[in-house]
Amino acid sequence: MATPLSARPYLSGFEALSAQERAQLHPDAVPFQLAAALTTAKETTKGRSRGVVICLHGFTAMPYGVGPVARAIAQQGLDVVAPLLPGHGWRDRPVQEREIAKITPDRLLAAARDEVRRAREQYDFVAMYGDSMGGAIALILAAEGLLDACAVTAPALQLPFRGAVLARYLGWLNFSIPKRLNRRFYAPCYEFENARAGRVLWRLSRRAKAGLEQITCPVFVAHSHADRTIAYQAAEWVRDRVAGPVELQWFDRSGHVLPLDVEGPAVATAISQFFQQQFSQQQFFRPLESPTPQSLATAKPKQLESKSRLGDQPWSGGPETTAIDFAFS
């Protein structure tokens, strides 16, 4: 008998769901896997890329939100998987409220680590892209030495005032309040904020920020000075504290949800080119006598010592935006 979806730790991008299982999820919450548009140098004897990027969505969001970046990465010659994190993506409102209140930092991090473990069994190069909360998780895993490269957009290293108050002082309680929703473009998400789940995000943000100095793999960070959800200083913390090379780019015509906003195509292109460059430079494609999946699962990512500031240009001002005004995202 199949395990009920609600009993699974998370939904991996490496596993297909049945039609019955998909029917329990929001249509834009289904995990997905994309095959690379391969070039000869990156093919294996099985015709697969030797590199993969795991894409993590944001808080109360869905894999749809990382779709533009995922598709751009696949076009650059890397495979892509986008899991559905615990507590997210349910179709029915009562189930949404029940499941989001069950999440913990350990559950979210365990899901991301397990996706990395699955990837290491198949690929030489394993990287991660995360948006907002997904960015905080990606930075935590990078600090643990689990990734060969990491890219984040608007990483949730500090919550907005409303979210921080709700999480810090009322996060012990399980209640939900309506969310102020974006009306400028389609960005599927839960239409409420849960105090208990918000505290989980607050704890993740603090942990991610505290571990920045431990990150040695290459990092790409994109943010907007006009982001009203996660302060732009989060990107500067990544730039200033990460030990490895950092590339920072600003997209100031956008708000918080960079992949879906007006500059989404440019964001996706920048991230995909970053990963393709890292994959090529680290030379993770090998001849036929490449290591076994068992050795790949325990391999340490290559560490770089240089520090770069590519794309870090001072802000010259930008338009106000009414992008998603989540207390959390």
Rg measurement, Å = 19 Å
**CATH homologous superfamily identity:** Alpha/Beta hydrolase fold, catalytic domain
What is the beta-strand fraction? 5-15%
Provide the CATH architecture. 3-Layer(aba) Sandwich
Order of the strands making up the biggest sheet: 1-3-2-4-5-8-9
Structural class: alpha/beta
Helix share, percent: 25-40%
What does this structure look like?
There is one protein chain. The protein is an alpha/beta fold and 329 residues long. The protein has a single domain, classed as Rossmann fold, CATH 3.40.50. Helices cover 33% and strands 12% of the residues. The chain contains ten helices and nine strands. The protein has helices at residues 19-22, 67-75, 93-100, 105-120, 133-143, 161-170, 195-210, 233-241, 264-282, 293-298, and strands spanning 32-34, 51-56, 79-82, 125-131, 149-153, 176-178, 192-194, 219-223, 246-250. The chain has a seven-stranded mixed β-sheet with strand order 1-3-2-4-5-8-9, with helices on both faces. Strand 2, helix 2 (67-75) and strand 3 form a beta-alpha-beta unit. Helix 2 (67-75) crosses helix 9, helix 4 (105-120) packs across helix 5 and helix 5 packs parallel to helix 7. The longest helix is centred in the C-terminal third of the chain and has 19 residues, at 264-282. The protein is globular and about 50 Å long. The two termini are 35 Å apart.
